[in-house]
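Job type: complex structure
Entries:
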Amino acid sequence: MRLTVNGQPYDLAIAGHESLVAILRGRLGLTGTKVACGRGECGACTVLIDGKPAYACLTLAAACEGAAVSTIEGLGAAERLHALQQAFIAHDALQCGFCTPGQIMAAAALLAQTPRPTEAEVRHGMSGNLCRCGAYPKIVRAVLDAAQRLEAARGA
Amino acid sequence: MAPRKRPPAPARGASAPPAPTEAHRPPRFVATKVEIEGREETKIVELPDRNPQPWDDAAELHVVGARVPRMDAVEKVTGGARYTADVLRPGMLWAAVVRAPAAAGRATLDVSAALARPGVRGVLTLDDVRGIRLDGMQLLDDAIHYAGQPLCVVCADHYALARAGAAAVRVTVEPAPHAVNLEQALADGAPRVRSRGNVSPRSPRLIQRGDVDAGLHDAEVTITREYRTPVALHSALEPHGAVAEWEGGRLSVWESTQGIFNTRSDLAKALGLGLSNVRVMKDYMGGGFGAKNGASAAAYLAAVAARKLGRPVRCAWDREGEQTDAGNRSATVQRVTLGAKRDGTLTAIVLDATIPLGMGGWEAGPGRIYHELHACPNVRTSETFVYTNTGPMASFRAPGHTEGAFGLESALNALAGELGLDPLELRRRNYATADQSRDRRYSAKRLDECYRRGAERFGWHDRAARRATTSATHVRRGFGMAACVWGGGGGPPAYATVRLNRDGTADVLTGAQDLGTGSRTVLAQIAAETLGAKLADVRTVLGDTERLPFASNSWGSITTASVGPAVRAAAEEARDRLFEAAAAMLDAGVTELSSRDGVISVRGSERTMTIGEACNRLGDVMIMGQGSRGPNPEQTTIPAFGAHFAEVEVDVETGRVRVVRIVAAHDSGRIINPTLAESQLEGAVLQGLGYALFEERVLDARLGLPMNPTLHDYKVPTMADAPAIEGFFVGGADTVANHTGAKGLAEPPIIPVAPAIAAAVADAIGAEMPEIPMTPWRVLAELKTAG
């Protein structure tokens, strides 16, 4: 089947039971997407499928045929960081960083749907992404800041 | 190597008498005390050649103390950071663990169906690991000690195949009676949990000073309360796991660990290898919180499986494994009696505690903080540790003190109520100015400043006016506070090397770990400050036993205070060598040189050159400095302190508690990076909030099985639960502690959270909260009792 990840097409032989996250991490080497629970409880594996957030651990890879999958690696690289990545760094919205790719992808989905979220909307919209280090207050600030940065960039 | 220019300076705090046979030469190796996780250990230390002048509050520092971004943040936000969970080795097999489905009994395994499955390359059972023991238990034992205990491991080409193989292992259990809680373990005729009995042989652990009977006799007010705290689970997002690979007789292990050198020792001993034949690596790590302090069962299993099957093996716990078999914070029952004069002066503190340990672990105990936090001449604590058929405990962020603070600080708040005194005033009237439990001085103590500035920021004294401002008639507002003390002075041994590359960039090499705390960043800041280098040119390399000098486990909030001074000493030695080389290039004397932001300048002249230019002219001559951590000052306790103030809203119809705001004021000496320090502080407050309101491992007493071993059912705080947190640090450098002036800060801020919130809930509803987590039904029950 053909899987499109971060704009790159991949032709892969995929067994029916294989999860999207297993393919991303094991076969494509895209280890930015993490597995922390493997059962849709923590959000660490959040990716975008056709722009909508999805738990890659609960998504069958085979079901993604024809869809566009976006992972943290596709969002922005070190030399060209996405506004969310910049804001996460600026606000120190991370500690161990294990949940960070999922947090950022969930935030990207939130901002795609709600470009100017209120603080309450951020808290509600991202409460499915757990952070055991407790970076939440700074994640909220980073997402609100990124929304402003993105808006400024659109206006410019 | 350039000759050392300075004679060895006398080490601070090391005044061991000279050896009688060599009266002219003081001993080079001396003993010093180091406090780790509330336990004091005696360590040998080699007196360093170099003892930099302490950075006091007047020291002019540019990089240390600056709010610079986390230095590995780009790696973390791009997905480029490689965690142990991301390590893939060529030909690697994946392991899946078969776990005990009962709390006690004997297991018989039939692995034939698993071995017949596609992709399965082998299994490990008891015979493969006989002699390897963890927490006093044989690994893969067929005698079942707790539900979730590993029984066998199936290795296959992919994880899904390994899991399918594990599911095909037939486990037959001959059941035996179990004891999974205190009541069962202490009942008459209880099943024997461990061969030595159900109560630890060191129990009861009795620690006392003064005469509590006399203290209670002198008391004008006495209160007695019983407090209960739950078993809490670390729930790090990266589960325990390791990858092992053999090259001939040499073993390489990547493990998610807080201690690469401890892990190396554990593995070498178990496998009969020399330490130099075991290499342990850990780069990025998805949290530890105390549960990853040595080789995990997963690491032993990966190493043995890799040797047996001739391929690299990854063995990692799945989430259910992590929530049942990766350590936990012990539950406690604390019966507390306080005696006091009418003016609030404490005359006696008595604790009788019972602590179910699971199958083992170490005996952290809630008692110690009762001796340390408040002034009182008469204190007696008795702690009884009980074995149960559950997974062993493991250190969990301020182990013992966090549990103990809930009892002690809640009791103090209850006493304040009884006396009609402000809880803050009661604490001020019992302010300890020295370490009473060990009868010695503190290196520094600014808890009074935490009290004052925390109360100010919180508006503690105006709280009565804010009480009525709630959003609805069924919502009540309340306010509470609590304090903490914790070790965190760190100590030796810790070593670092700083080397300059020919382009002027610098590598800081030390075998410490960054758990997400920011060690990588703060150690680079210390080196950049000392070298006068640009921070961006300094990189910290951590986590490799083969390539890096020793540093201890990242535990007990000790890393900055232990490794920081070693890094500073190493950087100073490198800088002195650099200056010797640069002096000739700049036609100046060494003492005329200074460096800042990557530029070396000559005092009173315009002549400058960059560190990069100097290094480049030296070609491949390598400027290198070595540093080590010196001894701690003698007869001195080096603690960190803090005070928290909480505001909550309680819905008296549903029993739901919403924490509105926490103000957390802390004294941890010099703060190397305020931004990162505040991040840790906020994180600890949130973990404490989870402990106070949501987190509790639930076991079915009859079945002996965990009921909530998932992140859905075991509730850790989410973004929606996060209150406004105003965390800050008071005071400045603790120059008695060490020459960087910094102390630990990771653990202290979890300690006062639960009692501060409980006091606020009690204040809101007019009923004390004797048990956490304060779930809605517990709040409603207390409301009902209070009428």
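Summary: The radius of gyration of chain A is 15 Å. Chain A is about 40% helix and 10% strand.
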